[in-house]
Design a protein that fits this description.
The structure is a single chain. By secondary structure, the chain is α+β, with helices and mostly antiparallel strands. The strands form 2 sheets. A 4-stranded antiparallel beta sheet has the order 4-5-7-6. A 3-stranded antiparallel beta sheet has the order 1-3-2. Strand 6 and strand 7 form a beta hairpin. Helix 1 crosses helix 3, helix 2 crosses helix 3 and helix 5 packs parallel to helix 8. The radius of gyration is 27 Å and the shape is elongated.
Length: 224
């Protein structure tokens, strides 16, 4: 259903604007549609607010007040349905055709986005493992993974993060060889951007029916 289709009367207002070769005022539209001007004004305000119509104030030809006229905004209808899942399937199927190299490419893409998405620390500030894990968990929560820290390495630092929800579940079920490495890469990139003393080493997809499991481990000193 299109944005203007949510209300038949609002759709009629927009259709009248589109059918007219010239800008129309509230009274013009009310006369054409046989409705009260206040009703037309209400729907015009909504259409302008959503970017489907444009308003222009024109000076009066006489002593009257300036007149506001409306035109439909040119361009593609932005109110239609979207097919982002189909787009993702198309892109993933193409990437999967690259065979063994596809998983590595997905991981690198995840790392790049992880570095981009994580909230940075102030300059010269390096986080503790606990702080870095907390920031990573907050990012995963924002992305819809419903994460929860699990385990303890003896210093109060989580060894695992349970991911109780996958925002790309259907795609992960179909293209797990790409989606899951991308998720792992995202965590690795985020932690690397923080210069964290901990990294994500492995992701167990559907470790249990209710969750996936990300494993964390200290970064070797030689690698920092």
């Amino acid at each position: 259903m299109t944005a203007e289709g949510r209300s038949p009367r609002r759709a009629a207002v927009l259709d009248a604007l589109r059918a007219s070769g010239t800008p129309l005022g509230v009274t013009d539209l009310a006369t054409r549609l046989g409705v009260h001007p206040n009703t037309v004004r209400f729907h015009l305000d909504s259409l302008v607010g959503e970017g489907l119509a444009e308003a222009e104030v024109r000076p009066s030809s006489g002593r009257g007040r300036p007149r506001t006229v409306y035109t439909p905004r040119r361009g593609m209808d932005r109110g239609g349905t979207r097919g982002y899942r189909l787009l993702a399937q198309m892109l993933l199927s193409r990437l999967a055709a690259d065979g063994a190299e596809a998983g590595g490419a997905a991981t690198e893409a995840g790392r790049a986005w992880g570095r981009h998405l994580i909230d940075p620390l102030p300059p010269f500030r390096k986080p503790t493992a606990r702080e870095a894990t907390a920031r990573l968990t907050a990012l995963l929560d924002d992305l819809g993974f419903s994460p929860g820290a699990d385990g303890d390495d003896g210093d109060g630092v989580a060894e695992r993060i349970r991911l109780r929800h996958c925002p790309f579940l259907e795609l992960a079920e179909e293209y797990g060889q790409l989606v899951c490495p991308m998720h792992l890469g995202l965590m690795q990139g985020a932690l690397a951007a923080l210069d964290a003393p901990v990294t994500a080493t492995r992701l167990e997809p559907f470790a249990e029916p209710e969750y996936c499991l990300a494993h964390l481990a200290p970064v070797p000193a030689a690698a920092r």
